[in-house]
Design goal:
heterodimer; A: 436 residues; alpha/beta; 2 domains; 6-stranded mixed β-sheet; 22 strands; 22% helix; globular; B: 78 residues; 3-stranded parallel β-sheet; 3 strands; 45% helix
């Protein structure tokens, strides 16, 4: 497949009479965006704001971060299968994107003890909700501005669903609204000549170069939200636990994999630096043969090992001699991940694990939950520790009437579900390291 | 000590000396998908495997899987 990615960098954004992009200036028709948000009767109220890098702003209730992309040549639509969009195979032709810009989906449920956690737990209160509520925010400045979204210009869409919806309908309403808005913004650059373009032509392979696959282990929401759930990380809209998916790498750039929960969002899926780098090196240093999506959250080790075996078998079928494995949530998902490494190595595929480390728990914990001898090489993206505190901010976005405590200083919450964790699975973080 | 775990890889990695393989994270020591009699047999098999593990001297983290042949007998008996 061959995909041309045309980028329209957004250096400044403001509200104006119509939506257009001129030489890095994005003008947004606020009324049109609000109309698109409220086109669904399940949206009771919508607000939009802009947040720029360096602003004294905290964006709360973050359910997703979506980069506007539009297909201008080739089959399908970006973010296929999501919220009822067509499932035609994407990854071919030309796609335009707004670079350095995102639409933030903030879901505001007044008087609710839970918000994003509630979405993924099928409306059932969950022990982690309290800490999850505290981790789904973005600081745009200060020492807490460490997430990649802090360096983007963000259109924050605050959506209040009507009362009485179940979590599924609420997701379809809010995420559907955000996709309509993203489509509207991307449409502004559909007919323009992109100032930056990058061609990912993976049609031919050089037999002299080694073949690589990328295996992201992505958790499924099935165990909490059921096999037919629309919310949670999806491949072509499908969230359920399944055998691994084999994708052409360019499909990823059109949003074949998107959505998530809490800190597992759409934006990093489409901007995964590992996929980008492998695709850029195709034909030069290596042949990028495919992306094998391993769905995780199986209940037993035998199932995890089975899926890992299928990963390895797919990699062998594709002709891979090397693999990079990542994971987007550890705990039991790390058995899936280590099993994938093990199975690939056993199949003769040299494998590198890229992962965040566990909390060090004051020096008492091991960096990896499982140290298996099959892990021949690993790259750490750090332990995600944001030392904090998160400093007070002038403005809180993402709720119509935010609790005043959100504007104050927030302390980092340790643990995998706390604000302490950056959840940087693919190496976005601006971190340094020292050798001892 | 013996640990019954649906994910023996984690228990063994953490240094547990005796690990008996359980069923699933959601139901470690049984299977609600089975009939009551088969579930009881399965539970007995897991627990007796764990007890056998306790009686066994080990030199390091060791995995004890419930015996598959016993399982066939127990299931066919219902």
């Amino acid at each position: 497949m061959r995909l041309e990615l045309g980028s329209f960098p957004v250096r400044e954004a403001r509200f104006g009479p119509r939506t257009r992009w001129i030489d890095g200036q994005l003008e947004i028709d606020q009324a049109a965006v609000l109309d698109l948000a409220q086109a669904d009767p399940n949206i009771a109220r919508a607000d939009v704001d802009l947040a720029r890098p360096g602003d004294s702003v905290r964006i709360i209730n973050v359910a997703d971060v979506v980069e506007p992309r539009v297909k201008v040549e080739g089959a399908g639509v970006c973010y296929p299968g999501i919220c009822g969009r067509p499932v035609t195979t994407v990854g071919q032709g030309r796609t335009h994107r707004l670079g350095g810009f995102a639409v933030v989906e903030s879901v505001d449920i007044p008087h609710a003890q839970t918000n994003v956690g509630d979405r993924i737990h099928g409306g059932q209160p969950h022990a982690y909700d309290r800490s999850e509520r505290r981790q789904d925010f973005i600081d745009m400045s200060g020492p807490g501005a460490v997430r990649p979204y802090a360096s983007l210009i963000n259109l924050v869409v605050t959506l209040q669903p009507v009362d009485g919806l179940d979590s599924q309908d609420r997701h379809l309403a809010t995420h559907g609204a955000v996709l309509r808005i993203a489509d509207h913004l991307a449409e502004a650059v559909a007919d323009r000549e992109p100032p930056e373009r990058e061609v990912f032509d993976l049609t031919s392979r050089d037999p002299a170069l080694p073949g690589l696959v990328y295996i992201p282990v992505l958790m499924s929401s099935e165990h909490r939200a059921g096999p037919d759930a629309k919310m949670g990380t999806a491949v072509y809209g499908v969230t359920r636990l399944s055998a691994p998916w084999a994708l052409h790498p360019t499909e990823v750039f059109d949003g074949a994999v998107s959505q998530g929960s809490t800190q597992l969002l759409s934006w990093p899926m489409l901007n995964d630096p590992i996929v980008l780098e492998l695709a850029r090196r195709h034909g030069r240093d290596l042949n990028f043969l495919g992306v094998i999506v391993h769905r995780s959250n199986w209940g037993g080790q035998a199932e995890m090992e089975l899926i890992a075996e299928r990963d390895a078998q797919l990699a062998v079928l594709l002709g891979a001699t090397g693999a990079i494995v990542t994971t987007n949530l550890r705990g039991r998902r790390f058995v899936d991940t280590v099993s994938a490494v093990k199975a690939c190595e056993a199949a003769g595929i040299r494998t590198v694990l890229v992962t965040e480390e566990e909390d060090d728990e004051g020096g008492n914990a091991t960096p990896l939950l499982i140290n298996d001898p099959s892990i021949a090489s690993a790259v750490s993206t750090g332990n995600g520790a944001v030392p904090g505190p998160f400093v007070p901010v002038e403005r809180v976005l993402g709720a119509h009437d935010p609790d005043p405590s959100w504007g104050g200083e927030l302390l980092p919450i340790p643990g995998r579900y706390g604000a302490y964790h950056l959840q940087d699975y693919y190496g976005f973080g601006r971190q340094s390291c020292a050798s001892y | 000590m013996v640990q019954i775990s649906a994910l023996p890889m984690i228990a063994l990695g953490a240094g547990a000396n005796r690990v008996t393989t359980g069923v699933r994270v959601e139901h470690v020591c049984g299977d609600p998908g089975l009939s009551d009699a088969a579930d009881l047999a399965l539970r007995r098999r897991i627990v007796s495997t764990a007890l056998r593990a306790l009686e066994t001297t080990v030199g390091g983290p060791t995995r004890f899987d419930p015996d598959q042949s016993e399982r066939k007998e127990a299931v066919s008996a219902t």
